[in-house]
């Protein structure tokens, strides 16, 4: 059928690609304070919506399987680490040497995290989640992501 629902991996990958593109744009706009602020705010909103929706729709079911509990725990811990890095960035003076260094570390951590999910966690998850479940989780992820993203961008 043409209208086949998306499985959880498609929207996760789409968000990963958006985060990569946003990181790239942020680094290329680093010398333009107005554009830099907008790019940072966009990345922050996407990361926040993605992390929470991913934890609810992807990591929670992985916690239920012995084979994927370690990956789920590791992924959530990295989300927490990145949240703290974002908080540190918000405390630093935007555009200062400290801010730029922290931003570089955040983007490096984000790149590592996305790659690890795609190369290690997704293949493991495919072994424990069945087709119907991945489609249900995909719908849940999209619903949560869109709701959270709207909330993030209203603030």
Question: What report would you give on this structure?
Answer:
The termini are far apart. The protein is elongated. It is built from 5 helices and no strands. The protein has helices at 9-28, 33-63, 69-91, 97-128, 131-154. With 155 residues, it is mainly alpha-helical. The longest helix is centred in the C-terminal third of the chain and has 32 residues, at 97-128.
Biggest sheet architecture: none
| N- to C-terminal distance | 40 Å
Indicate the structural class.
mainly alpha
Number of strands: 0
Task: Sum up the structure in keywords.
elongated, 0% strand, single chain, mainly alpha, 155 residues
Briefly, what is this?
By secondary structure, the protein is an all-alpha fold. It has helices at residues 9-28, 33-63, 69-91, 97-128, 131-154. Helix 1 runs parallel beside helix 5 (131-154), helix 2 (33-63) packs antiparallel against helix 3 (69-91) and helix 3 (69-91) packs antiparallel against helix 4.
């Amino acid at each position: 059928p043409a209208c086949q629902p998306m499985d959880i991996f498609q929207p996760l990958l789409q968000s990963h690609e958006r985060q990569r593109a946003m990181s790239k744009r942020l680094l290329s706009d680093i010398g333009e304070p107005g554009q830099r602020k907008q790019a940072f705010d966009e990345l922050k909103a996407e990361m926040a919506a993605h992390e929470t929706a991913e934890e609810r729709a992807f990591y929670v079911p992985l916690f239920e399987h012995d084979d994927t509990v370690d990956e789920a725990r590791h992924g959530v811990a990295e989300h927490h680490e990145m949240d703290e890095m974002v908080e540190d960035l918000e405390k630093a003076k935007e555009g200062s040497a400290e801010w730029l260094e922290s931003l570089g570390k955040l983007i490096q951590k984000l790149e590592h995290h996305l790659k690890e999910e795609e190369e290690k966690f997704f293949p493991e998850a495919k072994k424990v989640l069945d087709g119907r479940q991945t489609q249900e989780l995909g719908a849940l992820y999209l619903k949560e992501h869109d709701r959270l993203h709207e909330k993030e961008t209203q603030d």
